[in-house]
Amino acid sequence: MAILPPTWGGRELPVSFSPNLPAESVSLQQTQFTNSKKFSDMKVIITEAAPVASAIARALNVTTNVAVPGVIYNNDIAVITVTPDFIRPFGLGVLPGKDALPIVPERYTYGIRHTPDENGRYGISTEDKTYADYIGKLIRGGDEVIFASDGGADAQGRFANICRFFKVGAPTSRMFLTRLERKAIKSAFKIRQWGRKFHNLAQTGLVGMAMDEAFKYNVSEAYRSLFKEMKSPICRQDVLVLAAVRNYLESDAEARGQHVPVNTHSVMVSGVALGKDVKFYPCSTYSTKEEAAEAYKNLCVPATVEASDVMLDTEMSPSPALFTLTTLQSEAWEKLNLNFSTTRDIAVSLYERGFISSPLTSCAKLPESLRDELRRYKWCRKYSFVADGTISGNHGIIISGNKPLFLDSDEQRVYDLIRSRFYANLAGPTAVNELVIEVEINGEPFYGTIPYTPDIKVPKAVEVKLTGKSQFSHTSVAPTAPKMNDLLCAISMLLRSLSDKYNPGMPFTLAHHDVADAFDRLRDNRLLLDVCGEPAITGEGNLLLETFNATYALGHLMAYQVEVERLYGDRKNSVGGAQLMNEYGKWIYAKTEQLITDHRLFPAKVDTHVCPICGRHSVIRYPRVAKCHVCGFTMPLQFMGHKFTDKEVASLLTHGYTSQIMFTNRHGHEFYDIVVRGKGKGLSFAPIEAKLY
Hints:
Elements: H1 23-36, E1 43-47, H2 50-59, E2 65-68, E3 71-73, E4 77-81, E5 87-89, E6 110-112, E7 115-116, E8 122-123, H3 126-141, E9 144-149, H4 153-165, E10 172-176, H5 182-190, H6 196-224, H7 236-257, E11 263-273, E12 276-282, H8 289-298, E13 303-306, E14 309-317, H9 325-335, H10 340-352, H11 409-427, E15 430-441, E16 444-451, E17 463-475, H12 484-502, H13 510-513, H14 516-524, E18 528-531, E19 534-537, H15 539-548, H16 550-569, H17 577-596, E20 605-610, E21 618-621, E22 625-627, E23 634-636, E24 638-639, E25 642-643, H18 646-654, E26 661-664, E27 670-673, E28 675-677, E29 683-685
Parallel strand pairs: 1-4, 1-9, 9-10
Antiparallel strand pairs: 2-3, 3-4, 5-6, 7-8, 11-12, 11-17, 12-16, 13-17, 14-15, 15-16, 18-19, 20-21, 21-22, 22-23, 24-25, 26-27, 28-29
Helix pairs in contact: 1-3, 2-5, 4-6, 6-16, 6-17, 7-14, 7-16, 9-10, 9-12, 10-11, 12-16
């Protein structure tokens, strides 16, 4: 089936913001606003969170009117909230042919979200429809439509959907909101950007959405009857992460298995120097315990000796790097016992309230343009900023000048973690001074250290009192097993390195570079377990990787990820969105067909009917499909939620159509129709001109 680029041409699903206002009140306010202002003179700023909209309105002095929750305007600017799920893509499960696998639609559609009513029927709520009509006039009437966000390709793709849905004809631009302080917002508004690159960034996001939808529906439905405990859909990133986890665990286990323990033996002499307890060790070790015992026996302790040398040693301890989203999630998991997605959600909430900079980043550096704003910190003068052009997207996570208020316990702990790291990073490398004292015992030099402070006065001759001795052995320890946060960092680094290598300049994109949700879904579906902090792939997880072919999956999914990002990073050398989706559609179609006809996953039996295409071989029936393994003919055994009876299957294979069947559409309404076998591999409803009823 042909695949077109994700132009999202439908008009049936919504956004994620629905004000709880009666339609009459919104209509009245809309009328008043329409009469008081000409839209053509106004700049429209669209953002995805109400707190961000409020911060923008305060910074740009847009405080004249609050039309409805999420819309603030004055005579020059309107700030509108359109949450990420308000205008969103259709799921493949609501398309005609639901439950027929594989499904690769010709066009991926979008629209206002559908929500259930009191009767359980899905549709666009009155509030959402009224809100969409209201903001649609504002958006279409502005002389410039500006997207204000800290997101990457996925956020830009959602903005493209908004513009297409509301038929925006005015110029569009982008404000990068790394921080929500007043000065930062005004600067972002002043230097907002235009250009073809944002169209390319949106294409990356849209194609990624389409790939995710196709993978999520087809692969989840293929495994649903096998994995009875499946609670979350199996997404593209889940399989990629699971394959990378197994590869990482196998490599780690092999490295730990090759470890050969090494035993070393030595002696130690304890003493007192300059009023401090000191432990002295020789530079050499002994290969056998007997040699160490002989050296121990020859040590004359207690005794008083004079230090042969006293040296001041200074070691520079590098400052810790600023947090990125991944390192923050890892640190919070280890120190605060918070799972990865919880940490991310808390960080996003802190950002939206203006307490920290955007957490959506994989860069731990700060640009030179921040020097003036951070001069309130005493360490700023010596801090190593980088050139502004070297950072693509958001910089490392820092705290803002706004004092945090009304934080719950988890939010306070995450904020304190970020603040401590920020201060430590600004302070720069720290110097650790030690006094190294050398004494000679039985002609062999022994060395000990004590912390050095300015109040310690070192005389020319340092007397050392040797008070005790001991003998010890040491066995090298094999590398410890990786923890869940080790996997998170390794896989996130892998995905980021792919972007940097093949598409440098690719901004941080939550759907591509954050794997927290993938870990959550894998645990929900019991494909990956957290056993006392250590990851373990379950039997179901190994079965998925074996049937999906882990090496094949890892290579292909990463290759498609690179090609999607190439639409932005290297557009001239990309194959284009249409061809890329065409290739991906063929791949996911073939992979899904292979899964639902895999004997290891589903039982199969030979049907008595002959293949209607080749006419020579019997078809094989699986739970989801009937297939001829000679000519490749396949026919789904379910359609629009209806599982065909044996009589209906026989009619489809023999005559190519069924009798009338009752179906229920996505709105909950019942209807009757005839199903016919299509010219290709799918099923469809009978064309109108062929119906006799």
